[in-house]
Amino acid sequence: MTADLTLAALLAAGARRLAASRAGAGPEATPELDAQVLLAHALMIPRARLRSHPEARADPQRVLHYRELLERRAAGEPLAYLTGWREFWSLRLKVSPAVLVPRPETELLIERALALHASPEGSVADLGTGSGAIALALASERPGWRLTATDVSAAALAVARENAAALGLTRIDFRQGSWFEPLAGERFDLLLSNPPYVAAGDPVLAGAALAHEPRLALSPGEDALGSLRVIVQGAPQHLARGGWLLLEHGAGQAPAVQHALVGTGFRSVRSHRDLAGHERMTEGQLA
Hints:
Blueprint: H1 7-19, H2 31-43, H3 47-52, H4 60-74, H5 79-83, E1 85-88, E2 91-94, H6 107-116, E3 122-127, H7 133-141, E4 145-151, H8 154-167, E5 173-176, E6 188-193, H9 215-218, H10 226-234, E7 239-248, H11 254-263, E8 266-273, E9 279-286
Parallel strand pairs: 3-4, 3-6, 4-5, 6-7
Antiparallel strand pairs: 1-2, 7-9, 8-9
Helix pairs in contact: 1-2, 1-4, 2-4, 6-7
C-alpha cells in the first residue's frame, strides 16, 4: 500500500480533480467538501475521522469506489445522488434520480406554513411531493396535522414512502396523480407546492447543477409559469375558508405569481426572500 492511499492524500487529490472539473466551476462549487463527503461515504466512516486521522491508509478496493464517485461528481452528477441521501429540515432523506434533490431554499415553505397555521390540528396538502421533503418536515413539526402528498410520478412516491417509513412518519397519505387530481372534493387549511418552474428552453437545464435531475420535476414546458398557474387556478376549490396557498417559484417570478393570485381572488398576497436574497416563495389567503 503506497503513501497516496493516506486519507490526507486522497482528499487532496480528490479536491484537485473536482476543482478542475465541470462540478468545480462557479462560486457555489465546494470541491474540498465534496471530496470529504465522497471519501467518507466510500470508506463508510464519519467525516470527522478524515480530519482526526489524516495519516491513516484506506483499503484499495474502497479507494477505487471513491475514485469512481469522484469521476461521476466531476461530470456534474449531484452529490446527493452519489451518496443516496440529503439532509432537509434536519431530516435525513433518501434521494434518487427519480426525485429532485431537496434544497435549503425550500425550507422557507416550511417556515411560512408553521407561521401561518399555528394550530396543532389542521389539514395540509403537498402538491408534487417528490422525495416527500415538505410533507415529512411538516409531519415532524406538527404531529396532529392531517397530511396528504401527491405526485404524478410513481417512482417519486416510492422514494417518499420509503422516507416516511424510515423516519417513522407514516401517517402521511401519499397519492398518485397530477396536482389536484387525487384530491377531488377535499379542502385543506394549507396547500403547498414546489412545482417545476424552469422553461424548457432555458439553458440552465443543461448546466451541471440540473442536468442529472428529473426534467419532469424541473420544467412544465415552454411556459415556465404553466404549473404555477394551474395550481393557483385550482386552489380555491381545495382550500377551506381562510386557507393559504404557498408556492415556491423562480427568483424572478414573484410579480407574475402575485398577479395570478390576486386575479384569482387571493388576499394578503406577499413574497418572501430566501437566504440569498431572492424572492423565492409567495403566499396568498383565500378571500
